[in-house]
Amino acid sequence: MSRPRVLCVSNDRSTRASVTLALTDAPVNVVIAQRGAEAVDRLERGAIDAVVIDASSIPNVPQLVDTVEAEVPSTPAFVHWGDDESDASVAVLSEVVARTDESDRPDRLAETITERVGADSRTAPDDLEAADTDSETDDGLASLPDDIAALVSAVRRRLVDVTSPVDVERILREEFTATDRYAFAWVGEYDQGEGEIVPWLTDPDSMEWPMQRTFGIGDGDQPLLERAIRTDEFQSHQHVADRCGSVPFGEHAVDRGVRAAAVAPLASGDERYGVFVVYALETLSEAERTGIEMVAGTASHVLETIAIRGQLEQQERALQRYERLVETAGDGMYVLDEQGHFMTVNDALTAMTGYSREGLLGEHASIVFDEADVDAGREMIRSLLSSGDSTDTVELSLETKAGERIPCEAQIAVLVRDEAFVGSVGVVRDITERKRSERKLREQNERLDAFARIVSHDLRNPLGVAQGYLELLEETESLEYVDSVRDGLDRMEAIIEDVLAIARDGEWATDSEPVDLESVADDAWEYVSTADATLSVAETMAIEADRSRLLRLLENLFRNSIEHGGKDVAVRVGALESEGGSGRGFFVADDGTGLPDEINDDLFDPSVSTAAGGLGIGLWVVREVATGHGWSVTATESIDGGARFEFAFDEGD
């Protein structure tokens, strides 16, 4: 009676390899199907006694089970390989298998299948003859001679715990050369890129064969190797002496009494690992050919498992490196699911936001981004998905747990799996300093624009006046115009001094020190042509200020009062009192005609001027000096109906 056949249905190579290795010594034969359609085809072509279904990689498991029940209703058991226990009709053995520890699940699976299907065969000889004749449907060890069965069993036992391809080569070579049937055996790796078979040299000192060479595939020089690689089928020559040129190391093999050679491909699915080459001292019997194929099949599964483990370890190492990079990155990083909830955050993001990791994970992105920024992020993701681009950048504002808003730049990438959007990744960078630099540059550009307007307008007016009076002076030779010319030149000089001060220093408060308000006001009054105007300081106070800049501020205010309030205007300077009685700033007021209503809203704009000579540049300088000191400036009406400018200090000043 033939042994029971177990159909393993899985699209995961690691699962297939684990199941096959676990059942290596069990009294069953394993048949592989990578997809549900292949499983149905296997069921139609031959008898199956048990089914292992990997629900994690095979869709529509209930539909597959229904098909199995329809095709082979006598099948005694279905084994559900997976963790989904929601459908008891599918996971018949899930309570026995799926709940075991990950480490012993394959062994537990083997025991369960053996118990369910029994050691006796339920497949009739006629059914077996109708089944496949490849290595997956052989009669197993029971049909082999004792010595060959013992060789296959010995190889299988030694390969169970192997974790290195080097050990695979050593075990195959040692077990085959230890018998009196075979002269030598070796394993060659298939280098697809170079198109070569490269023999593995795990113990070159113990080898008497000339292994220091490679064999080209595709040029026709090694037909035995080429056919094995191209067809994934067992190849052999029964009379090497007659065709030694077609056999790798053929002449050396003949010299050592070799009669036959066999090449078994080492492959699994679409992966070709190499070949297993055996040199026999006599012609190969059918049983020997079967035994070599069985050994090659077991070795192929072992190599597949080793490769998968290596890939998983490499992926794990790469993942650990990425995790370290993410955790040590200076920028905030996060992963959102498709609904916008935080799935991963790094330490930098928690530091930026003030939230703990637990406080962010599972929360929606709106916990730190406002609605407008969330909508902008959604729109960007839609754009990336439609365009096929990988990343894009958006500026947004991040709100911390304390309520502070931080300007940020976020680089966003979409996550797509099986053509479906599953989330997004973001890198958030604090751009506060950049915004500050941009603002400073913008202010500097505004100053340059103001300079241009000053040169084109404010200087042109007094210059034109002076030129006009000079022409009158030239025509009349009357000295009465000299004072008017001088006034125009003085006005130009004052404007030029303001412009040069801005151009030279850029900052309006560089060297602050305690200064007396009355003393600075008196000095500023001396620098201005005051005619019959008067200055009074109601109350002096000590101010932390850049004295030269404060002088320019007061000069411009005094000049403005005289130009627009009349030559006999009265100007007062005094302290602004806070509720507690201490000084919180100072004021400059006059009893002139007040500020023009039409320019009240643009009073400190350098482009705004009046027909009388211009308020623009002077009051703009006043605003710049105040801002440079950290003061706020307000223009209002004095109690006498004139102009009043109040300068309030910040609370820390």
Description:
The protein is of the alpha+beta class and 653 residues long. 43% of the residues lie in helices and 22% in strands. The strands form 5 sheets. The protein has a 6-stranded antiparallel beta sheet, with helices on both faces. A 5-stranded antiparallel beta sheet has the order 12-11-15-14-13, with helices on both faces. Helix 15 (432-458) runs antiparallel to helix 17 (482-505). InterPro entries: CheY-like_superfamily (IPR011006), GAF (IPR003018), GAF-like_dom_sf (IPR029016), HATPase_C_sf (IPR036890), HATPase_dom (IPR003594), His_kinase_dom (IPR005467), HisK_dim/P_dom (IPR003661), HisK_dim/P_sf (IPR036097).
Summarize the structure.
This protein has 653 residues and is α+β, with helices and mostly antiparallel strands. It is built from 20 helices and 22 strands. Strand 1, helix 1 (13-22) and strand 2 form a beta-alpha-beta unit.
Oligomerization category of the chains in this entry: single chain
What structural category arises from helix and sheet content?
Answer: alpha+beta
Main β sheet profile? 6 strands, antiparallel
Distance between the termini: 101 Å
Taking all Cα atoms into account, the compactness measure Rg is 46 Å
Catalytic activity: ATP + protein L-histidine = ADP + protein N-phospho-L-histidine
Keywords: Kinase, Phosphoprotein, Transferase, Two-component regulatory system
Region (Disordered): 116-141
InterPro entries: CheY-like_superfamily, GAF, GAF-like_dom_sf, HATPase_C_sf, HATPase_dom, His_kinase_dom, HisK_dim/P_dom, HisK_dim/P_sf
